[in-house]
């Protein structure tokens, strides 16, 4: 049986929230999806029947391997769509999320496999996040938040986490794009804002911004 739109939204939330032990709480899901706890509980009971999670009252959910794969395949559709919109239709990276949200619920596997082929099997989406393959496997990345970097470090801008269009516009206006070299010039003790240098120009980024930017050394 095909997954419903609502089920796919829950699966995608599980993908983003699950920790290193494959656990996530009902409360975390409720806040992430802005859905009331009883509704989340009811959906997770259905997920348990499908073998996607292990559900026990008052305990964190455990996402099974089957559930992880189902969640990754929803994310695959979303990220492939975003890449197609940027690479083949010339959309800006800040304009693709909403369209991908709609197209990710198309159930045709052939459609997304063809999209993958046309794009020459990309490993990452326009925001630097890995695209799961047809089996739901995903490339592990060794990245850290810009906010965790030290004074004087030089790093490469590798990815943006769960960012809205406004933040992506903010980055674009400052020419902060993927694969740019970033040098940490100053870290404010008061609010932990960071002065960086990119392409010979300096920019001051708030703590909120540096929490969303992932970099590699």
UniProtKB/TrEMBL annotation:
<dbReference type="InterPro" id="IPR001367">
    <property type="entry name" value="Fe_dep_repressor"/>
</dbReference>
<keyword id="KW-0010">Activator</keyword>
<dbReference type="InterPro" id="IPR036421">
    <property type="entry name" value="Fe_dep_repressor_sf"/>
</dbReference>
<dbReference type="InterPro" id="IPR038157">
    <property type="entry name" value="FeoA_core_dom"/>
</dbReference>
<dbReference type="InterPro" id="IPR036390">
    <property type="entry name" value="WH_DNA-bd_sf"/>
</dbReference>
<keyword id="KW-0804">Transcription</keyword>
<keyword id="KW-0238">DNA-binding</keyword>
<feature type="domain" description="HTH dtxR-type">
    <location>
        <begin position="1"/>
        <end position="64"/>
    </location>
</feature>
<dbReference type="InterPro" id="IPR050536">
    <property type="entry name" value="DtxR_MntR_Metal-Reg"/>
</dbReference>
<dbReference type="InterPro" id="IPR007167">
    <property type="entry name" value="Fe-transptr_FeoA-like"/>
</dbReference>
<dbReference type="InterPro" id="IPR036388">
    <property type="entry name" value="WH-like_DNA-bd_sf"/>
</dbReference>
<dbReference type="Pfam" id="PF04023">
    <property type="entry name" value="FeoA"/>
</dbReference>
<dbReference type="Pfam" id="PF02742">
    <property type="entry name" value="Fe_dep_repr_C"/>
</dbReference>
<comment type="subunit">
    <text>Homodimer.</text>
</comment>
<keyword id="KW-0678">Repressor</keyword>
<comment type="function">
    <text>In the presence of manganese, represses expression of mntH and mntS. Up-regulates expression of mntP.</text>
</comment>
<comment type="similarity">
    <text>Belongs to the DtxR/MntR family.</text>
</comment>
<dbReference type="InterPro" id="IPR022687">
    <property type="entry name" value="HTH_DTXR"/>
</dbReference>
<keyword id="KW-0963">Cytoplasm</keyword>
<protein>
    <recommendedName>
        <fullName>Transcriptional regulator MntR</fullName>
    </recommendedName>
</protein>
<dbReference type="InterPro" id="IPR022689">
    <property type="entry name" value="Iron_dep_repressor"/>
</dbReference>
<keyword id="KW-0805">Transcription regulation</keyword>
<keyword id="KW-0464">Manganese</keyword>
<dbReference type="Pfam" id="PF01325">
    <property type="entry name" value="Fe_dep_repress"/>
</dbReference>
